[in-house]
Specification:
Helix content: 25-40%
Keywords: ATP-binding, Nucleotide-binding, Transport
Number of helices: 9
Oligomer: single chain
Strand order of the largest sheet: 8-9-10-3-11-12
InterPro entries: AAA+_ATPase, ABC_ATPase_HisP-typ, ABC_transporter-like_ATP-bd, ABC_transporter-like_CS, MetN_ABC_transporter-like, P-loop_NTPase
Order of helices and strands: EEEHEEEEHEHHHEHEHEEHH
Radius of gyration: 18 Å
Pfam family, one: ABC_tran
Largest sheet: 6 strands, mixed
Bound molecules: adenosine-5'-diphosphate, magnesium ion
Family: Belongs to the ABC transporter superfamily.
Protein name: Amino acid ABC transporter ATP-binding protein, PAAT family
């Protein structure tokens, strides 16, 4: 791998749920430090694509590589052998995921939430990860909340903690699935600000979002999906401001 090798490559990925093709021949390549935004109507396959990259779902055809490694399978000669659960768990550490719902551990404090993964999964020394956890809290602007419980925080604050918790595992790529969709409108901005800072720091990100302003400002590249397919892809100005495909145009007109 060199600096310009993509962090994530999806090659002709198909994912079916029974007869439904949730992803149909989807190909996408995300370079280091890029912010790949994915937009599209409900049911178009956006979450499924992230879930396949994160191995929460198994693909039916095609291949996905993360940080240069084929996920889910090992090549043996011409054959593909499924990886063990332990190997899949190791690969999943390369991707950090932030969901629409914050999914924090409600019986743990903010700091405990952040250090839980590094402590129990990575088995790193507590002193080291507490220091890193505090630095992450600082980064998301919530240092003073270290001993609070999630229920004491606003939705926006909880989502910022969820981002810090994912970052604590030092992923190679961060996947965001509509991270602001469940928030009251006045709390959206603080989460987008954290994501903006993260992008500026060079983190590779794949972001499913309906926040077209954020996409226009921060995305390196935008994909519009519909019915399990990539309909249009390009720089944000092209896809969001002067889309070529009628389906993209209709979607953007409806969202704005
Ligand atoms: P989006 O995130 O763009 O709204 P999804 O990826 O969630 O779309 O869903 C794509 C399609 O796959 C939808 O038609 C959805 O109903 C279907 N789907 C998603 N997950 C499952 C599942 N676990 N079982 C059956 N169908 C599913
Ligand atoms: Mg979704």
């Amino acid at each position: 791998m060199n600096a310009l090798s993509p962090i994530v490559v999806a090659a002709s990925v198909t994912k079916q749920f029974g007869p439904l093709k949730a992803l149909n021949n989807v190909s996408l390549s995300v370079l280091p430090g890029a912010v790949q935004c994915i937009i599209g109507p409900s049911g178009s396959g956006k979450s499924t694509l992230l879930r396949c990259i994160n191995q929460l779902e198994k693909i039916d055809a095609g291949a996905i590589t993360v940080a240069g490694e084929l996920i889910g399978y090992r090549r043996v000669g011409n054959e593909l052998h499924e990886l063990s659960d332990a190997e899949i768990a190791r690969q999943r550490l390369k991707t950090g995921m932030v969901f629409q719902r914050f999914n924090l551990f409600n019986h743990m404090t903010v700091l405990q939430n952040i250090i839980e993964g590094p402590l129990t999964v990575l088995k790193r020394p507590r002193r080291e990860i507490v220091a890193e956890g505090m630095a992450l809290l600082e980064r998301v602007g919530l240092s003073e909340k270290r001993d609070s419980y999630p229920i004491e925080l606003s939705g926006g604050q909880q989502q910022r903690i969820a981002i810090a918790r994912a970052l604590a595992m030092k992923p190679q790529v961060m996947l965001f699935d509509e991270p602001t969709s469940a928030l009251d409108p006045e709390l959206v901005g603080e989460v987008l600000n954290v994501m903006r800072d993260l992008a500026a720091s060079g983190m590779t990100m794949i972001v499913v979002t309906h926040e077209l302003g954020f996409a226009r400002e921060v995305a390196s590249d935008v994909v519009f999906m519909d019915k399990g397919e990539i309909v249009e892809q390009g720089p944000p100005r092209q896809v969001l401001v002067s889309p070529q495909q009628p389906r993209t145009r209709d979607f953007i007109a409806a969202v704005l």
